[in-house]
Design goal:
The complex is a heterodimer. Chain A is of the alpha/beta class. Chain A is 31% helix and 10% strand. Chain B contains three helices and seven strands. Classes of the chains: A alpha/beta, B alpha+beta.
């Protein structure tokens, strides 16, 4: 807007004259920009421990195509922003889940997919080996109910997570 | 081969080591074998040309409260016949010789039986827990198993 010759006299200070008429300058909130970038490239870890993993694969495949939200799967936690806990977590697996979460770089998010990861699901009562909810191990941002959830439900959870990321304040002064 | 004929063949060879045939209501019929003789019986069943039980289809533990049992399901790919072996073990320190030298497939199933029932298989190539974590306490499929309260600080 500031490069319109008709408004040359009222040139704002954040678009110096030296940029010339070709300069393209966006003015906006840095938080919004960073959050937009983060929510639009949520790379999730290839991590599935039960039947939810099948739905997760289907969500990533061509029919539901999670790629269109900027989400692709990564085979390494070092490259991942999002941990989708898809399936039952046993006590033997618990240490590994925690390790995977700790290996992910900040900022990182966790989506708990399906009843097992949410609460232990069908194994809630009378199971000695299943962790009763992955939130006992790591902080969870979004819970998606279902056994297993359909791809639509997972995508809905994914969009909820994007909404959460939009609300983040990255540059606020530390209290 | 008919279970009765097979039992008679075992009886003539091993006499008191095979006390009983459980045929009624069992499929396949089970031959009860004393724990000490199991390895010899297993070798005989595999190697005898008329029997040739070359496949161990299943090995599992049973808790009868007053005693344990280990059940072996055998099948012969050559002769297309099947038989079961059953070994009864005492409640205290249940232990029976490993058959993984006879059928290598036994190893994983013996490990599972050890993991969940606490039955020991001396002579095994590799006897560790297979399903539960290494530091788990107790054997969950025993009838008198008490659930632990916590594992590594996580409520069970």
């Amino acid at each position: 807007m500031s490069n319109d010759p008709a408004h040359g006299a009222a040139r704002p200070i954040h678009a110096p004259a030296s940029f010339g008429p070709e300069a393209h300058v966006l003015v906006g909130n840095a938080d919004q920009f960073v959050n937009w970038a983060r929510k639009s490239s949520l790379w999730y870890l290839l991590f599935a421990t039960a039947c939810c993993g099948i739905e997760l694969m289907q969500t990533g495949a061509s029919r539901y195509d999670l790629d269109r939200f900027g989400a692709v799967f990564r085979a390494s936690p070092r490259q991942s922003d999002l941990l989708i806990v898809a399936g039952t977590i046993t006590h033997k697996m618990a240490d590994r889940v925690k390790r995977l979460y700790e290996q992910m770089p900040e900022p990182k998010f966790v989506l708990s997919m399906g009843s097992c990861a949410n609460t232990g699901g069908p194994f809630y009562k009378d199971s000695y080996c299943v962790v009763k909810g992955v939130d006992l191990l790591i902080p969870v941002d979004v819970y998606v109910p279902g056994c297993p959830p359909r791809p639509e439900a997972l995508i809905d959870g994914f969009l909820k997570l994007q909404k959460i990321i939009e609300q983040k304040r990255n540059f606020a002064a530390k209290a | 081969m008919d279970p009765k004929a097979l039992f008679d063949a075992l009886k003539t060879r091993f006499a008191g080591a095979v006390p009983e045939l459980q045929a009624e209501g069992f499929r396949p019929a089970f031959v009860v074998v004393s724990p000490d003789a199991l390895l010899d019986v297993a070798r005989f069943l595999r190697d005898d040309p008329g029997l040739r039980f070359d496949s161990l289809m299943c090995l599992s533990g049973v808790d009868y409260k007053e005693r344990f049992a280990v059940a072996y399901h055998l099948y012969s790919m050559t002769h297309r016949h099947a038989i079961g072996l059953k070994v009864f073990l005492p409640r205290e320190n249940p232990s029976v010789a490993s058959v993984d030298s006879v059928w290598p497939a036994a190893n994983f199933m013996e490990r599972e039986t050890f993991d969940l029932f606490g039955i020991d298989f001396p002579g095994s190539k590799d006897m560790r827990r297979i399903l539960l974590p290494e530091d788990w306490e107790g054997h969950p499929l025993r009838k008198d198993y008490k659930y632990p309260e916590f594992y590594h600080g996580i409520k069970i």
